[in-house]
Amino acid sequence: MNIKSILTDYSNFEEKTLTNRFFKHEDILPLINQLPSEFKIEQLGNSLNGKSINAIKWGKGETKVMLWSQMHGDEATGTMALFDLFNFLQQNNETVKLIYENCELMMIPMVNPDGAAVFTRRNAQQIDINRDFIQTATPEGRILKQARNNFEPHFGFNLHDQTTLWSVEGTLKPATLSYLAPAFDKALSINNIREKAMLVIADMFKELDQLLPHHIGLFDDEYEPRAFGDNFQKAGTSTILIEAGGYQDDPEKQQIRRYYFASILSGLTSIAGQSYEQQSTENYFAIPKNNKQIFHIMINNLVLNDTKVSIGINYDECPKDDGMSTYKSYSVQDIGDLSFCDAYEVYDANGCVLQGNVHFNKAADFALSNKKQIILAFENGELLQKH
Q: Domain limits of the chain?
């Protein structure tokens, strides 16, 4: 399989009705219902607010693979990638044949449709579904848990988004993608089940690092006893976490979805062709770790109290009431020596005039200008102007 070649043909299978992160259950339901007959659709149950949660099965192979997305309602990249995958699997090529003959896929897009409706992480009970494995107080958690128990998958793909402030160790680049074979115990033990997930991820990284160099990190593997990925790993499903982070000038993650799709396809091909068996855990652990050495905005050479400093500014992305967009609230997150950091946008304050005050851990509320124009202007956390 040549991932690069497949991505050059992306426009032929990209689901064009999904153009941003704010699509809803009513947007994806027609896409599910119009899938051809080789896709078997099963309603697994309903969310708290009565929205259907559906599984789509495809393939006739012996190796069972379960993929689920949008447990968190505001993490939509995996869902976009799954619908691109549905379209790709309708093509006639050797990669599709390989997966079809060797795998049976069960794909569950949008586990949390109520959260997606208002673009929030949690469900209608205000519970984080991915911290509900033990208690299963949420209908969505119960559905997902039962789906795994019934299907008994050999492999699982847990599809999420992470904050855009994760970076890749040693690169000062955003972690556009992050991978992880979740731990199944506090000791972070490695058994045959977890090892298989690590080997598949090593195969994925080998492919994707060529397309997205210095932008892929290994997520922290701290054990979370309430999480589904950790518990599915424990139950015998080799579980692979994929997280979509940030990428320059891609706020709606339309470029990231391509790399996300490529990650899923690479993993499925590795499983179908069993190429992961030629990998080693050393290659998994060699993937650079995630860290946090980037800001959304950084201003260098700013004079505060007669001292030249850098300031790091980040935003919180908050959903608007209609769930169809967000607003960004900017605050000052660091002041001082930030020479070991980078940012999506970097400004030089040399020769500039500061109007207003800069306060650590407070809403950005100042303007920075040179002799010609305003460079940056914030008012009570709102970005008014930038150049």
A: 3-291, 294-386
pTM above 0.70, yes or no: yes
pLDDT at position 372: 86
DSSP string, 63-130: EEEEEEE-SSTT--HHHHHHHHHHHHTTS-SHHHHHHHHHEEEEEE--S-HHHHHHT-SS-TTS--GG
Give pLDDT, residue 2: 85
Q: Residue 198 is encoded by which pair of tokens? A: 């690590």
1 pLDDT higher than 80: no
Question: Taking the C-alpha atoms of 216, 220, 225 and 229 in order, what is their torsion angle to the nearest 10 degrees?
Answer: 10
In whole angstroms, what is the distance from residue 125 CA to residue 145 CA?
A: 18
Residue 153 CA to residue 175 CA, distance in Å, equals 29
The two tokens of residue 209 are 């690092």
Q: Is the dihedral of CA 342, 345, 351, 356 positive or negative?
A: negative
Model confidence at 271, pLDDT cuts 50, 70, 90, reads very high
Looking only at Cα atoms, what is the longest distance across the chain?
Answer: 71
Give me the CATH topology for the region 3-291: Aminopeptidase (3.40.630)
In the chain, the amino acid numbered 144 is L
The mean pLDDT value for 255-265 works out to 98
Is the model's pLDDT at 98 over the cut of 80? yes
Contact 88, 13 (CB under 8 A): yes
Per the CB < 8 A criterion, the answer to whether 144 and 129 are in contact is: yes
For the record, the structure tokens of 380 come out as 């009570």
Residue pair 293/346 in contact by the 8 Å Cβ criterion: no
pLDDT at position 327, please?
A: 97
Q: What does the pLDDT average to over 111-134?
A: 98
> What architecture is the 294-386 domain classified under in CATH?
Roll (2.30)
Cβ neighbors of 297 (< 8 A, separation 6 or more) are 312, 313, 314, 330, 343, 344, 345, 346, 347, 376
Question: Where does 214-253 have alpha helices with state H?
Answer: 228-235
Residue type, 308: K
